[in-house]
Amino acid sequence: MANIISRTEYKRTWQQVNQNTQYPDESDTADFINYCPQKFGRGYHRHIQLRGMRLLIIDEEFDDDLYVESEDIQDIEEEQIEFGFNLSGSYSRKECGQSFLDWVDTDEISEMEDWKIFAKKRRLKVDIHLKSSNLLNSFIIDNSKNLPTILTDLIEGNSKQDFYETNIIAPEMYLPLEQIINCPFQGITKFIYLEGKCLELIALKLEQLRQKSQSKTKSDVLKKDDIERIHAAKVVLIKNINNPPSLIELARQVGLNDYKLKIGFHQVFGTTAFGYLHQYRMELSRQLLLERQMSIQEVARTVGYANHGCFAAAFRKRFGINPKYYRLKH
Question: Which is the most buried residue in 15, 134, 169, 284, by most CB within 10 A?
Answer without folding.
Answer: 169
